[in-house]
Design brief:
By secondary structure, the protein is an alpha+beta fold. 49% of the residues lie in helices and 26% in strands. It is built from 10 helices and 10 strands. The longest helix is centred in the C-terminal third of the chain and has 41 residues, at 243-283.
């Protein structure tokens, strides 16, 4: 570019540009002038001016100063030295300083504005931390794997810590395996059918089992989602250990069966007692009238108890009907 065009071009940049011939400043664009402040008018030595800027910003790092001095003395390029300086608005801004020789004996000082990059890096780190917290936290195993055009699992591309611990693999071991390696042999067909559903649906939910490294099985509930990642169709599979859920369900089923048996016994218990009572009542009229009357009174008392049992059986039937609706 023609040197006559340098001022207009340089002043359009947000990056600071300083050019010096030896120890004399020959050009400074508007961005550098704003960064250096009013003092630039009274300073001709670029190194002295740079040290002044550092002092104004409370920077006394001797390593930085030594690097700049060595670069100037040896005429060796200095690249990518990051500095935090105060902008004209009073805000702290990130700059990347580079120094190199250009045509003749001129030295180019380039203060590249990198605040937006630094802010983007900080946001990226924050997002990565959130991702790690969400992905590796909690109690659910999460695996991400690719699928073929036919909807068949191909390879793991990400696994979380819970999945590794539950299945008994290290992260590298699990990533080196196929998603079908954690499927019990008898359930491969079932899993393939479920995964293929994700070719036409975004989400599926089903119960199955996963095979651990030691060969044991873990009952799980799978909540799987299909999505595009880097131009590839992938499955995000979230598995929840339902061992306790199944154990609790088994306990409830056993209790329900016992309740049903007890209710059925109530249903026949009255008849089993009434039949002998009828016989006893018949014998009551065969002997002493006073004794017979006492027997009849006791029989009526027992029949009252039986009526209460019948009422209890009716209530028990309501309980059984409720259990059938909610626990079978």
């Amino acid at each position: 570019m023609n040197s006559t065009h340098l001022p207009s071009f340089g002043d359009a940049l947000e990056d600071g540009i300083l050019i010096a011939d030896g120890n004399t400043i020959t050009y400074a664009n508007d961005a550098f002038r704003r960064l250096a402040g009013e003092g630039i008018c009274d300073v001709h030595d670029p190194l002295f001016l740079f040290l002044s800027i550092l002092r104004e910003n409370g920077i006394s790092d001797q390593a930085v100063i030594a690097e700049v001095k060595d670069a100037l003395a040896s005429k060796t390029p200095l690249r990518g030295k990051e500095l935090v300086l105060q902008s004209p608005s009073g805000e702290r801004q990130w700059y990347e300083l580079s120094i190199r020789e250009i045509e003749g004996d001129n030295t180019l000082w380039f203060f590249r504005q990198i605040t937006r990059w630094k802010e983007a890096e900080a946001m990226l780190r924050e997002n990565e931390e959130k991702y790690r917290l969400l992905f590796h936290g909690g109690n659910d195993g999460i695996v991400v794997y690719t699928i073929s055009r036919k909807g068949e699992p191909e390879a793991f591309i990400e696994v979380n810590d819970i999945a590794c611990r539950r299945l008994g693999y290290t992260r590298d071991e699990l990533l080196s395996r196929s998603p079908l390696d954690i499927v019990p042999a008898g359930r491969v067909g079932e899993i393939l059918r479920e995964v293929k559903k994700l070719l036409v649906s975004d989400q599926i939910l089903f119960e199955t089992e996963q095979a651990r490294a030691d060969g044991s099985l873990c009952p799980v509930e799978i909540n799987a989602h299909g999505m595009m990642l880097g131009g590839r169709r992938v499955i995000v599979s979230i598995s929840r250990d339902i061992t306790e859920r199944r154990r609790d369900f088994g306990i409830k089923q056993t209790a329900y069966r016992q309740i049903e048996e007890n209710i059925e016994q109530f249903a026949v218990l009255g008849d089993h007692i009434r039949n002998p009572l009828t016989v006893i009542l018949g014998y009551a009229g065969c002997g002493d009238e006073e004794i017979g009357e006492e027997i009849r009174m006791q029989v009526e008392i027992i029949r009252g108890y039986l009526d209460q049992l019948d009422q209890g059986w009716i209530e028990s039937e309501k309980v059984r009907s409720f259990l059938r609706r909610h626990y079978r």
